[in-house]
Amino acid sequence: MARRPLPRILSSGTTSLARGRDLARTAADSATDVLHPLLTIGRGLRVLASTGRRKWSDTPKDKRGPALFLGAACVLVVALVPYGPLCALVTVMAAAAWHGRDRTPVKTGPGEAEAERLGSLYEALVPYFSIAEDPAPLFAHGGAWDKAFGDYAFDDAGRVTRLRIRYPAYFTDGEADARARIEALLHAKSGRGREYLFVWDEEANHLDLSVLAPLPTTIAAQPFVTSPGETVLGFTDAGSVRRTLPVLAGGDEPCDVPPVVWRTGPRSTEPHLLAVGQPGAGTSSLLRSVALQALRHGGDVLVVEGGGSGEYSCLSGRRGVLAVESGPTGALATLEWAAQETERRLIATHRAREAGRPAPDDTRRPLWLLLDRPSVLAHLAAADGRPDPLAQLQVPLRHGRAAHVTVVVAEQFDHLELLHDAVWQHTRARVVLGPASIPQIGEVLGLPPHTTPTGQVPPGRGYARLGAGPVHRLQVPATPDPYDDATHPAHRQAVLDLLPERGPAPGAQAGARDAGRDRLTLAKPLQTQPPAQAQGPAAGTSEIPEVPAEAT
């Protein structure tokens, strides 16, 4: 016998059904609040009735008659006294309310296992927070831990989740090494595998320890609510930034999360970005996320992939993507053109301002240079006797902010020494992804994080610092290669939905225009001709002039 399908209102999670459940739950909560006194009195009457029944069953049979007669006499006297029944009713209700109150025992202190854990933590801190000259040491072997610890909390497993430590004033809390020793000790004694936040209050001599919740990993690439010039690098803790973005998390559930927003353009103080991580840490996902956001805001993108794994093939031939290069020859041609384009934009903007005209439109169009593992291409070029492609980055890095050119470099920890000094000097926005030690993170970001990094982290998890700002925890939105079948299908589809439509064929002539957008296919080095006169190129022309050396 075939099974009949359920009604639609029961089989589909419609909005009306969900709204009805919410209304019913709200009504039940309101009714509980209103009827709470009656529920308390009813519970107390039940307690009084059970107590009376137990007293009656415990009374011997030869004494039940006199007890019943005494009770009837008391009832008769109460009935004959003026206002007796009313006073008796009030007395019974008060007794019922007293016996029906919530008598759940309130935990006033730690349990035996929790007290033992706090005691061991106190003993471990004694060598660091005590000196022999202290007449009344706050930390001493065999001392009372409750004088130094306060505002503590534990999880279900009995591990510390929140703790305030009071330390003596002579502790050198202004030295980074001394603070790092205390943080490492607390991390080891409180339980590994979690991420702790340490907040030092030097004025009050307090150290607050708290366990941070993991950042969400279910947020995929999507159209973020940002203005042109703003790029969402990822998401962080709620107390770190003053802004939230509406996003769709796993299961298309809308929520507001705090983002780490990187601002680019002529007014940016951090015009270029450096991302560092281990293999599989998520630096390629970060570059894909940046590329999709740049294309959405009408920018042009040049991608140089040193690994040669084809992780950016989904961008080839898309509108706004000028080139995707993975070889030394193509990378050198791409970066040479980018350097010349930066110089051309600077000259055109300068001449327009001298003439009292606004800058041409083609000089204000954002140009993004995305380089993934460029040290590999530098090594291949050196082995083949070719010029180093990274040397062409000096002009875009130095003058890119004024020319609307942004450079994003992603490299691994093992090859950081191959990066040029210009990259380290001009990339003041930094990101570190994947497992890394505190010295490694501090070397790249310039400051150590305020949390303890864990050994096992999901892809795209790390830290970010924009310029001279604080270090933020970061979770990059999931932006996998859409052609990689090993990744999550929903995340791959989200990337495919954000890709722009395909433009002209890759073999189009260099400098060809498509609906007013520059489309360049840099399959070989560009051959440029010097201008006939010392005048700037007209807006909309495709030829790139050769700039004299003194113009740089």
From TrEMBL:
Keywords: Membrane, Transmembrane, Transmembrane helix. Residues 502-513, 525-541 have a biased composition (Low complexity). Residues 501-552 are annotated as: Disordered. SUPFAM superfamilies: P-loop containing nucleoside triphosphate hydrolases. InterPro entries: P-loop_NTPase (IPR027417). The keyword RNA-binding does not apply. The chain crosses the membrane at residues 67-98. This is Membrane protein. It comes from Streptomyces subrutilus.
